Amino acid sequence: MSPKDIAAAMTGQLTQGPSGRLEAFLPSPMVQNHAAFIERLEDGTLVSLWFGGTLEGKSDISIFGSTLAPGAEAWSAPVRLSDDPERSEQNPLLAHNGLGWQLFHTAQPAGNQDECLLRAREITLTSGRIGGGEPRILDLPHGCFIRGRFVRRKDGAWMMPIFRCVSRPGQRWTGSHDTAAVGISHDNGQTWTLEEIPGSIGSVHMTIVPLDGDRMVAFYRRRQSDFVHRSVSEDGGVTWSAPEPTDVPNNNSSINVVRLTDGHLAMVCNPTSAATSSDRRASLYDEIEEGDDRPDASGGCKPIWGVPRAPLSLCISTDEGRTFPLRRIIDDSPGTCLSNNSEDGRNKELSYPYLLEGDDGAIHVAYTYFRRAIKYVQLPKGWIYGEEA
């Protein structure tokens, strides 16, 4: 599809796709839409969040949201939920603190992820329309980024999966020193402390999945573009092992993992890596770095950018995420991501997916489509096992 074709399809209308699936391109007034999140509220309403503007890192990037009420035939008109004219606001997610839903997101100047702030605000849903309150800044160091769902620790503390975009004085952020950490709150998100994950340089976008008893596993995107990595907690999230590779390739792009009602783990991702493609770009923000004369950060790991972000696949593990032998393609394209531009047709990525399982066993997925739109797909129960109608 061309950017013009995609724009014409961005109505939010649900349509019947192959194998019994439902599909929609979420409505947005912005030419760039990226980093989808999806969650189900208590009444069954689905909420999708993303960031939109002209180009990732630009100060016109804001958080948007849309809803799909139970039985509705289309996603609602989008609502802008943030608007900082000085910072690029990115990576939104919702979390419930026991009193109500809160929106959390990042806010950075240009491509300087090491100068990012984290913000939170109360969320309301009135007549199917999502709304946001006044923002507050979280008391965590600059450079803390988020992407994964919050989880309760064994002792009741709130765990916020974080990746640290570590600043190097006088040098430009490249991702070379990024590590994983967990934000810990004992007062439902009012105050936070930070706990590092050992041996995690290059392991980012931590996604925590509770298992049985006190066991938890976490999965990571890799700056090195090699494999999805995994770590384990045996004490309910208090301590974590160092990340180790799974059998799923990773292209230095986002993943998402949930535990299904049958006990299996489901991961949505692009199972490609630097070993499967020679495509490379200088950095994530090379299109907006003009005028920044600082040298790139030295040392650390060697991030690899530009590996194609496709196909988009659903992968299943029956051994707590050590391996994911069952893989099925949700959507496919060339995956080209050597440019973040969403208007000239060069970008073909299918990326940054999020998923959840419905009460009826259907799998709901939201993801970036060519940087132009957020696409939603509902996969019928049993689709991953080949049982769809």
TrEMBL record:
Any single Pfam family the record assigns to this protein: BNR_2
Uppermost EC category: hydrolase
Parts forming coiled coils: none
One Gene Ontology term of the molecular function aspect: exo-alpha-sialidase activity
Keywords per UniProt: Glycosidase, Hydrolase
Residue span, Sialidase domain: 44-365
EC number of this enzyme: 3.2.1.18
Keyword Plastid found: no
Protein name: Exo-alpha-sialidase
Gene source species: Chelativorans salis
Lineage: Bacteria, Pseudomonadati, Pseudomonadota, Alphaproteobacteria, Hyphomicrobiales
